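Give me structure tokens for this 255-residue protein.
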Amino acid sequence: MTKRDAATGFDLSGLNVLVIGAELGIGRAVAWACAKQGANLTLADLAAPDALAVEIAAAHGSSVSAKAVDVTDRAAVEALSAALDAAGTSPDCLALTAGVIKYGKWLEQDPDDWEQDFRDLSDINVKGPINVARAFLPGMQARGWGRFVLCGSIAGRMGGLMAEPHYAASKGAVHALTRWLSLRYAKDGVSVNAVAPGAVATRMTEGTDIDPARVPLGRKLTPDEIAWPITYLLSPAASGMVGAVMDVNGGVIFS
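Here you go.
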């Protein structure tokens, strides 16, 4: 049985799924959602999310391992890819949810601080996905099947509800990268897609004020409400999705 035939529909049974950025927020919710769909999981973050791996394995009887990786470090990402390959757990499906937001003001913030924020955002939100794509997509290509899902943002669509320009630019870059990668790898059975969340109730948005009147749904989204669309895009059910940037924003913007 090939990986292509291992699962159908929304089922991830028999598939190796890597979630990078799994410790908190959307990534944590993706890890739980994938476990519920029967995936063999590798969970990665800056520090290995060991406690989460133990918790998920106990709850679902899943095969779960935890790894540490810094997506801004190309060599570290490549080492993770090599380690998973050596262990026979190279990902069939990969969700990259690691990211960062900075709220420093466009002109009001100290210029040197703003430049540092810009460098941090670019390294994590843009260079990080490129490092991950370079390390993992060729393996999926060689095996003839794969799913890679990135995390964009409503800010990459229309500037966001509270985002500053450096964050909006970084997420716009993720959307463009999603489409570039999808065109390169689709013919080899590898689908690359993204989600573009609106404001989500995570640690990254704690202490921020979102005017509910600007969101037709009337509230921030939950991590689970982003995780399940990501899990769908990771699954065989999304076989026709190529280069899509799926809007999950409570109705703020339609594209």
